[in-house]
Amino acid sequence: MARVIKQANTTSSRLPPGPRRRIPLAGLLAYRRGPLPFFQTLAQQYGDISFFKLGGQDAFFLNHPDFIKDVLVTNSQNFMKGLALQRAKRLLGEGLLTSEGEFHRRQRRLAQPAFHRARIASYAASMVDYASLMRTRWRDGATMDISREMMRLTLAIVGKTLFDADVESDAPEVGEAMSVVMDLFNTITIPFFELLQKLPLPQLRRFDTARAKLDTIIFRMIEERRRGGRDRGDLLSMLLLAQDEEGDGGTMTDAQLRDELMTIFLAGHETTANALTWTWYLLSQNPEVETRLHAELDQVLGNRLPAVEDAGRLPYTEMVLTESMRLYPPAWALGRMSLTDVEIAGYRVPKRSLVLMSQYVMHRDARYFPEPLRFDPTRWTAVARESRPAFSYFPFGGGPRRCIGEGFAWMEGILLLATLAQQWQLRLAPDQVIALRPVITLRPKHGMRMTVRSWKH
After folding, report:
1. Partner of 180 at 20 to 30 A CA spacing, among 186, 309, 358, 454?
2. Percent helix, strand and coil across the chain, each rounded to 5?
3. Which domains does the chain have, with CATH numbers?
């Protein structure tokens, strides 16, 4: 079991094993060439905890469920968000993903009611309606970029269910702006990035332009809602009306609303779209799983569209999605910064060290998932789940910073997959190259061109 204790209580000064540090910036260069292979190499060569230099930053990589649980849950008070998300404030401001301390707890209290189970259930009909509309637009034999289609679908849903707004007309502009934003996240681990932010670099100018486009859409929603003045039952209405009864009794300013809506705008469609894209890919490569999925949909739904109660009646559909997020977790890594000297597994972790954990690497660990590269939804039966430690699988993080929208994401993923798969199956285009693009989420590097085929019952 990992132990995280204050440095004052330990005399340990050892560092964990890790790559040789003779070449300056070697760790940073290896990381930037490919963070996923880099993390995998650390786990394979150095075990459950390793040390490396990320530029001038002390960095520790954890690859054991006990260590991950200790950092995210048991001793979460000793850590704050890592560098990437601190720097993400350039886009997200002080939203739930980036804020810290009492301010974060206040914002989470204000946002929590919008994600209660009953509230999430009320969004189900809109989710199915948008997916049904998309499936009627598809044509047998057509080839399209499914990653782009899923982004468009989840963007429309997050706009409607959380903001009660039609943002589908903004989808191309929002999609382009999001791509620019994602490109920047690939550079924010560069040392001295704070200094680079002050320079008139073309990439940063593009980022600021993209952020301004997104801000225009978000502030337009806030202004329209304040002008309307009525509760429309969505997240934006609830945030406008919410008062912090446990704290100062105050409400959110427009700037605070903007930060929370921007965070949900990003997290509420980007992650689910990527999860579905990788699911379609895996189904196309595993026809026996696809056949079993369709059999469940036929048995439970017949020819009718799914409803909210069906999300709990489609266990195999849920297992397909769960297994897809094991192999291709939308959030592929997360980091924490130590607030004090701590100890993990007998090793000293100095104050302000970066502690990194990767869902992508942990989810592919053969100790917990035999034949880890095999796509096998039956890994997620109740018995199989109970046989593994909790943090061998953590697609939504854990502890007090666990994703507030997890319930929303699960219901959305199941209902969208069920609605689209009822009518269609997808096959990978012959010239499609599969490669990973780990930015803030795990995207397919070259999109996901697939051919739509009618499912023959």
Report:
1. 358
2. 55, 10, 35
3. 1-93+332-366 (3.30.43.20)
